[in-house]
Task: inverse folding
């Protein structure tokens, strides 16, 4: 207990002064699970240790915006999936990555490691760099995910060599043995016409025999590559065996995604000048503190065509060249005007929250300022975000409460088709398609 109090005091002193933390090197970066029961593995995008920050998981396309690409890969595709993340207040440590094949519902499949991997399922992360000239010290890790032999859902887990979990990330490997054709469906009713985006799709299986598709085929649609609000379809609406086609059509407005609005942006890649969305920067504090411009609700506003990156994040530092290790961490203060406190909880949403409704992303109401406020420690970069309202009894938050919703909003939808062949022990991802909705 005494050691924990000393660590807490020292790290607080570090945040206040910008000095190197006084925790002994061998104790830095120890997992918060040390000395306790092993944390259970979650088949989800999740961070188990608060020292882990700024996770990026993407396909290495070689393009400048490759970090915005989702972790979705064709089985025969040469470009690898890359994992990058920082660990704050820690020296370099030996970290281990492992893969787990999962079924369509993100439960572990019955496959053995040798059935989906050519290598022993334990990979050390060797691409490690210390931060340079930053007020908040960190270690940056980069890992190239090994190739797999089967399509499907996978969980990548990273842990300390001793076994303490640090983070998990979902990735998809597909093989287009069926053809997925997406199309825009007709708006359903006045509400659907104004606020929702109808996307329907067909699955053609001319060259791939599907046995009992009504039971064995499952489909998933995501908006902007998010899992928190993905829609799952247990069976198609119609099966046309004569032309070997599955039809997925939807008749109720609730079956379509809300278009919402373009994401709100802010840019902290420079702390010498105010970037997009930034009101002022306090460099006297350590870490520096960035105060964003006060936001207002967009509910009831007409649609505004603003460029965004679909809720994702790009890290960078405009003053120095190597942003991977030169980008610093700053406090970022959010404020949302509201004349009165809602009878519900208000959260930030975006890639920087992993789309989770965790306590650290909850905003508190300030009666004096008549605004919701909160702050997060974030790496310098360009970010997108929403405000969302979570009512009591609901598991999900409603971003349309503050953001509004429009048919004309630009969004990306992707469609995942799963199938379990007869006698197989796992669901395979046999079809994948992406459609850009209202992209300008």
Result:
């Amino acid at each position: 207990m005494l050691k924990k109090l000393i660590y807490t005091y020292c790290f607080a002193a570090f945040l206040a002064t910008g000095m190197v933390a006084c925790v002994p090197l061998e104790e830095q970066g120890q997992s918060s699970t040390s000395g306790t029961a092993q944390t259970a593995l979650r088949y989800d995008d999740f961070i188990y240790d608060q020292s882990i920050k700024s996770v990026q998981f993407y396909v290495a396309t070689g393009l400048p915006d490759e970090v915005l690409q989702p972790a979705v890969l064709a089985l025969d595709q040469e470009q690898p999936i890359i994992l990058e993340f920082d660990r704050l207040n820690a020296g370099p440590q030996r970290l281990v990555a492992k893969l787990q094949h999962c079924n369509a519902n993100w439960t572990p499949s019955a496959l053995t490691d040798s059935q989906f991997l050519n290598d022993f399922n334990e990979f050390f992360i060797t691409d490690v760099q210390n931060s340079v000239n930053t007020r908040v010290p960190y270690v940056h890790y980069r890992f190239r995910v090994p190739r797999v032999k089967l399509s499907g859902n996978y969980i990548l887990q990273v842990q300390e060599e001793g076994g303490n979990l640090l983070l998990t990330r979902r990735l998809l490997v597909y093989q287009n043995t069926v053809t997925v054709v997406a199309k825009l469906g007709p708006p359903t009713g006045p509400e659907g016409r104004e606020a929702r985006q109808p996307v329907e799709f067909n699955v053609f299986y001319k060259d791939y025999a599907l046995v009992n598709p009504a039971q064995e085929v499952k489909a998933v649609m995501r908006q902007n590559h998010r899992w928190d609000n993905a829609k799952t379809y247990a069976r198609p609406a119609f099966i046309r065996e004569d032309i070997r086609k599955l039809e997925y059509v939807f008749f109720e407005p609730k079956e379509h995604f809300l278009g919402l609005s373009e994401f709100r942006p802010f840019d902290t890649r420079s702390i010498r000048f105010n970037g997009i969305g930034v009101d002022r920067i306090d460099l006297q504090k350590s870490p520096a503190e960035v105060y964003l411009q006060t936001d207002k609700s967009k509910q009831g506003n007409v649609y505004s065509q603003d460029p965004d990156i679909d809720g994702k994040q790009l890290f960078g530092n405009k003053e120095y060249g190597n942003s991977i290790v030169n980008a610093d961490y700053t406090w970022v203060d959010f404020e949302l005007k509201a004349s009165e406190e809602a009878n519900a909880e208000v959260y930030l949403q975006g890639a920087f929250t992993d789309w989770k409704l965790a306590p650290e992303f909850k905003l508190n109401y300030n009666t004096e300022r008549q605004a919701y406020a909160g702050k997060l420690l974030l790496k310098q970069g360009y970010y997108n975000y929403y405000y969302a309202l979570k009512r009591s009894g609901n598991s999900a938050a409603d971003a349309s409460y503050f953001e509004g919703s429009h048919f004309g909003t630009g969004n990306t939808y992707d469609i995942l088709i799963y199938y379990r062949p007869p006698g197989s022990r796992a669901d395979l991802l046999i079809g994948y398609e992406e459609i850009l909705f209202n992209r300008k």
